[in-house]
Specification:
about 600 residues; alpha+beta; Spore Coat Polysaccharide Biosynthesis Protein SpsA, Chain A; Trefoil (Acidic Fibroblast Growth Factor, subunit A); seven-stranded antiparallel beta barrel; six-stranded mixed beta sheet; 14 helices; 25 strands; binds uridine-diphosphate-N-acetylgalactosamine; binds manganese (II) ion; Polypeptide N-acetylgalactosaminyltransferase; transferase
């Protein structure tokens, strides 16, 4: 019996427990190895060369050695966990290091209580509905982390235990993805229901989640990032929806935990998951009609999910082929999963009555390996673009021409699942699931946003409106994603340069017999003939169109018949034709080139 007088231990501390040691190899004695189920491979035929290698990787990613799984038979309820010692062991001494480990404010996070209350951010009738606690599927909460802060990780776990009915919460499976301090995860198995998988080498969040899925035993899996706090009744809407439809993948609304002061802020409820043609996740606004008629207790169909927080049935996740184990570190798996779910017979919804806060940050605080983060993102994206997007991949490469230089690697395992599940094509997805997406015109030379430095070509209203003229061309902030309510009507910045006619157009809202419709209007010089200094306006397209017919020469936009005049970012809200010269103000880059 050890004397405890030197340190203040919480009264619940087990007297015989020695302080945890850094992990070496093998099972730590006081922990019983967790029985890991046998791996059952999918039936591949035939195999050769690259395919064989892919299959080996597939198998390896799904094999969890019992020696890498830790549970503590003496685990206790969360409120008996010695929070103070756990947090104190990771405190920083130098204030300047506050953002070093996690790219969010550790000084603040370490002092925010682990069991704090957060505002109930649900809208509509969510908080008057009595959410049932019985008769719902159980869930394994899966959290992977690499060098997470002790405080954010523990707050995640405690919020899950406190706010999830215990009959629904089967277990919390942590995956320590080779963090530099193994005790951060290792000490948490002292809390009831917490299991730990240790990745002895860094796998990235995608393979880390696959590993967790191999040992998790709940009816459903609920994936969370390692820096979240779940809100009131968050799990029931998710479980209820999966119970109704076992092929439904559901996500909460992701509230915001401010990375500087850790304030919990309710997020906008009127967004669904989308994706740009560059394959970057974005939020799309609902239409005004959809907002006005929204019932928060009902799921909101979502073409994609952000990726970090969602629930999926165990059987469905495995049947779908989990994730692509040849994707590394971070990025793209959420879009890949979204396409796969929809194209292969599943559905995706955001449940607005389920809220989970997440600490969003500006940077990845961790390493991406020798080739760098961009290589990782592009390779991950290329893999699913080739698997799922069919001929629409040209739009992706039009947006990211350089992506062609990175090879996706062997895709046979992913194609195996695509065939086995008889998945639909991308054309079906675009037309039936993501009709909100802007369609590049195939007969175009250039399409989408056109950028000049940090700004995007934008149409501004005229001070003195004239018939047949809809606005003038200038530069504005590039509007994309969450802060852009104008996304719901056509984008004021989406442009098309037509291949055959040289017309440079934008879809524009006009009245036809009292009805609002979109028509393509044409950019052109206000002066006929155009001259040095002419303003550019969006006007009705005309037949005699020397002043409206453009060419795009490397980075310059010129009128075909007046090639000594170039579009020039003359003043911010006021672009003009100017004598061509080699200067920045005449250089424009389109979101997409159809090449
Ligand atoms: C978003 C998702 C994230 C994932 C990612 C795309 C949300 C809230 N988050 O990124 O879950 O879908 O987009 O891939 O939607 N991690 C590891 N190993 C690594 C790197 C990260 O386990 O090598 C962990 C990390 O500790 C965290 C999680 O993976 O818990 C997600 O990483 P993140 O928080 O850096 O990503 P985030 O939120 O920017
Ligand atoms: Mn995150």
């Amino acid at each position: 019996f050890q004397s405890q007088s030197e340190v203040t231990l919480s009264p619940v501390h087990e007297p015989v427990q020695s302080s945890p040691e850094p992990l070496k190899t093998g099972v730590i004695e006081e922990n019983q190895p967790y029985p890991v189920p046998e791996f059952t491979p999918i039936d591949f035929v035939p195999l050769n060369g690259e395919e064989e290698k892919s299959f080996d990787l597939y198998k390896a990613a799904r094999t969890v050695s019992p020696e890498d799984v830790f549970v503590d038979p003496k685990a206790q309820p969360w409120h008996k966990f010695d929070v103070k010692s756990y947090i104190d062991a990771g405190r920083i001494k130098n204030k300047n290091d506050a953002y070093k480990t996690a790219a969010f404010n550790q000084l603040v996070s370490d002092d925010v209580p682990m069991d704090r209350e957060i505002p109930d951010t649900r809208l509509g009738t969510c908080n008057s509905v009595v959410w049932p606690r019985e008769g719902l599927p159980t869930t394994s909460v899966i959290i992977t982390f690499h060098n997470e802060l002790r405080s954010t990780l523990l707050r995640t776990i405690i919020s899950v235990i406190r706010r999830t009915p215990s009959n629904i919460l089967k277990e919390i499976v942590l995956v320590d993805d080779a963090s530099s301090d193994p005790n951060v995860g290792r000490e948490l198995i002292k809390i009831n229901k917490v299991k730990l998988i240790l990745n002895r080498k860094r796998e990235g969040l995608i393979r880390a989640r696959i590993r967790a899925a191999m040992i998790a035993t709940g009816d459903t899996f609920t994936f969370l990032d390692s820096h979240v706090e779940v809100n009131q009744d968050w799990i029931q809407p998710l479980m209820q929806r999966i119970k109704e439809n076992p092929r439904m993948v559901v996500a909460p609304i992701i509230d915001v935990i401010n990375k500087d002061n850790f304030q919990y802020i309710g997020a906008d409820a009127f967004l669904t998951g989308g994706v740009s043609w560059a394959m970057v996740f974005r939020w799309d606004w609902l239409s005004r009609h959809e907002m006005e008629t929204m019932d928060h207790t009902v799921g909101l169909k979502s073409p994609t999910i952000a990726g970090g927080l969602f629930s999926v049935g165990k059987a469905w996740f495995h049947e779908l082929g989990e994730y692509d184990d040849q994707m590394d570190i971070w990025g793209g798996e959420n879009i890949e999963f979204s396409f796969r779910v929809w194209q292969c017979g599943g559905e995706m919804e955001i449940m607005p009555c389920s809220r989970v806060g997440h600490v969003f940050r500006d940077d990845h605080p961790y390493d991406f390996g020798k080739k760098g983060s961009n290589h990782v993102f592009v390779k991950n994206n290329n893999r699913f673009v080739h698997t799922w997007m069919d001929e629409y991949s040209t739009f992706y490469y039009g947006t990211r021409p350089n992506a062609r230089s990175i090879l996706p690697g062997d895709l046979s395992v992913r194609r195996h699942f695509k065939e086995k599940l008889q998945c639909k094509g991308f054309d079906w997805y675009v037309k039936n699931v993501y009709s909100r997406q802007h369609m590049p015109e195939r007969d175009s030379i250039a399409w989408g946003h056109a950028k000049r430095g940090e700004h995007c070509l934008t149409v501004f209203p005229l001070k003195n409106p004239q018939p047949g003229i809809y606005g003038k061309l200038g530069g504005g902030n590039c509007n994309q994603g969450i802060n852009n309510p104008s996304f719901q009507d056509m984008d004021k910045q989406s442009l098309v340069l037509k291949k055959d006619t040289g017309l440079f157009q934008q879809p524009t809202k006009v009245l036809h017999d009292g009805k609002e419709v979109y028509e393509n209007k044409c950019f052109g010089s206000i002066d006929k003939p155009p001259k040095d200094g002419s303003k550019i306006v969006l006007a009705d397209c005309v037949d005699e169109n020397d002043h409206q017919r453009w060419v795009y020469h490397s980075v310059n936009l010129k009128l075909d018949a007046y090639q000594d005049l170039c579009l020039d970012a003359f003043q911010m809200g006021n672009f003009r034709l100017k004598k061509c010269a080699n200067k920045d103000s005449q250089q424009f880059l389109f979101e997409m080139l159809n090449i």
